[in-house]
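S., here's the first fold you wanted:
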Amino acid sequence: MKATPQENRITEIAAPVIKDLGYELVCVKIVGDSGNQTVRIMAENAETKRLGIDDCTKISKALSAVFDVEDPISNAYNLEISSPGIDRPLVKEQDFEDYLGFEAKLETNMPTESGQKRFRGKLKGMKDSIVLIDTDDGEVEIPFGSLSKAKLVLTDELIKATAQI
């Protein structure tokens, strides 16, 4: 997934801090305009794939202190820490393996050869940086680098599976 230079800079700063606290950074997103920006950071416990409110508070306090020193955003901003949720974004190649068999929505930067930009189907994994997804029209291969968005679809199957983690 494409990130802005500022999101990449915040990721570079935040990832080691979050890792030192025993969590894993999922993604960083900056929303809003320069007068009213929000830095959204999703993180999780690598084993449970969850993040509680106390965990969010711990991460927020640690990052606030580091951001005060590093000053990655020159304007005022709000910092939001959250879990990626059950219908989480898929941001790393490993995510497509971890959630093999679950339903997902994918969107590409440019239309594929078929002219399509949006896909929905069951994840079939990765092969040489190519995402494999089984759609109603058959299996589709999408280069990981061409994805602009990818997330799991909230289904009964996903809810049942995540309740067991």
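And the second, which I think is the more interesting of the pair:
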Amino acid sequence: MNYACKYNSPIGEITMVSDGRFLICLSIEGQSMPFKELEFKENLYIFELTKKWLDEYFEGNEPKIKIPIKLDGSDFRKDVWNILLEIPYGKTITYGEIAKKIAEKRHIIKMSAQAVGGAVGHNPISIIVPCHRVLGVNKNITGYGGGLHLKRELLKIEKIEWSE
């Protein structure tokens, strides 16, 4: 059984999903929700921890709390999501830079930035796995599952500059 809890944030309602032990999804209002059957349960420890993390984040601070997460996807997607977890608060990376890191890790000549974009777009744990910190060439703001307006708001919170 998967459990859910709602969190009211400055950018809209966020749904947290847990398997009871790990955070497995964090979806901002407007993003797709991959889980259909959920039992709403407010008092799970993982949700209390995640709420504290989100409170710190939306106050404009880099959260220091470590959230136990579980990422479920292909090896390629997990490789991309793990690179996202390495992006420091307030910093960005491009799709091309991620593609280069994946190519190096897999000992291949080249990796498609578009393939990376697809993996980034399927990140199940928004904000905490910071897909909003991925920009296009020349710091151009590009795609975000909940819309570019949400990506802009998250970048503003971290005082990150971008190009339109």
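Why I say that: The beta strands are 3-9, 12-18, 23-28, 39-40, 93-94, 134-135. Residues 45-58 form the longest helix (14 residues).

Talk tomorrow,
H.
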